[in-house]
Amino acid sequence: GVLFAVDLETGQSVWNFESGSRLFASAALKDQQIIFAATDGRVFALNKESGEPFWQFDAQATVFSSPAIAGDQVYIGAMDGYLYALDINNGEQKWRLDSGWAIFASPFVDNGILYISSDDGDLLGLIEPSSPPLL
Questions:
Q1: Could you give the C-alpha distances from 114 to 11, 14, 54, 65, 85, in angstroms and in order?
Q2: What is the pTM of this model?
Q3: pLDDT digit string (tens) for 43-52?
Q4: CA pair distance 97, 44, nearest whole angstrom
Q5: Which domains does the chain have, with CATH numbers?
Q6: How many Å apart are CA 84 and CA 91, to the nearest integer?
Q7: C-alpha closest to that of 57 among 32, 99, 98, 94
């Protein structure tokens, strides 16, 4: 799949980035970074002005969810049931949580709580998502 940056005034392509795998979900933006996942499990952070990669992380599982960003962490769920917390500055894994179910939907953060939903309709909220979860 290809991620395109388009000038809204002219409609012209500014840059494009070939991920090497299908793109299913939306990207997230923070400061100069566009962060998105390809279905092959790779998570990318690109420079929003140039499209040049800042970093890449491989979840080694299919990813359909969009990333959520809170503070200096990126959260992304994968079909192998893991929720990943990545350092937004370098893409390094800070922690991961085995949810016990495939994660289709995108995680989200509200008032300091990270939420993920299960494939059977449950909703899990993690308090203090900047630290590894204690279950």
A1: 36, 34, 25, 14, 11
A2: 0.89
A3: 999 999 999 9
A4: 20
A5: 2-127 (2.40.128.630)
A6: 11
A7: 94
